[in-house]
Amino acid sequence: MSWTKVASLADIPQGTMKQVTIDDLDIALYHTAEGLFATSDVCTHASAFLTDGKLVGCIVECPKHGGKFDVKTGAAKAFPCVIPVETFAVETRGEEIWLDA
Ligand code: FES
């Protein structure tokens, strides 16, 4: 694990999400009213990018079968998702967003 600059705050307005890639890892970065969070961008049910789905509050809905995850904890919140997604630490340094992956 090491810290990498992945975006600027201007790139991801509150209420939106963005895919970032570190090495071969596809990571979803979320800007919620509760802050910035990051998880694997790959749904644990089958193969879909969560960033192609919908972000409502701190819950992301997968575009493929409608499963849901809590972006703060990675916990699966709606069937057919039962396996949590991996989470990553995020921090801001001034206007920059850094991720530990
Ligand atoms: Fe995400 Fe099925 S691939 S819910």
Short description:
The protein is mainly beta.
Explain what you see.
- With 101 residues, this protein is mainly beta.
- It has a single domain (3-100), classed as 3-layer Sandwich (Rieske Iron-sulfur Protein), CATH 2.102.10.
- 0% of the residues lie in helices and 50% in strands.
- The chain has no helices and ten strands.
- Strand 9 and strand 10 form a beta hairpin.
- The structure holds FE2/S2 (inorganic) cluster.
- Residues 4-99 form the Rieske domain.
- Its cofactor is [2Fe-2S] cluster.
- GO terms for molecular function: 2 iron, 2 sulfur cluster binding; metal ion binding; monooxygenase activity; oxidoreductase activity, acting on paired donors, with incorporation or reduction of molecular oxygen.
- This is Non-heme iron oxygenase ferredoxin subunit.
Strand count, sense and barrel status of the largest sheet are: 6 strands, antiparallel
Query: What is the element string, with H for helices and E for strands?
Result: EEEEEEEEEE
**Cα-to-Cα separation, first versus last residue:** 5 Å
**CATH domain fold name:** Rieske Iron-sulfur Protein
What gyration radius follows from the Cα positions, in whole Å? Answer: 12 Å
Strand content: over 45%
Compute the number of strand runs.
10
Coarse shape: globular
Class per helix and strand makeup: mainly beta
The kinds of small molecule bound in this structure are: FE2/S2 (inorganic) cluster
Poorly predicted runs of 5 or more residues: none
By CATH reckoning, the class would read Mainly Beta
Question: What is the assigned CATH homologous superfamily?
Answer: Rieske [2Fe-2S] iron-sulphur domain
| Number of helical stretches of at least 4 residues | 0
At CATH level 2, the architecture is 3-layer Sandwich
What is the overall pLDDT average? 97
Helical proportion?
A: under 10%
| Total number of domains | 1
What order do the strands of the largest sheet run in, or round the barrel if closed?
1-10-9-4-3-2
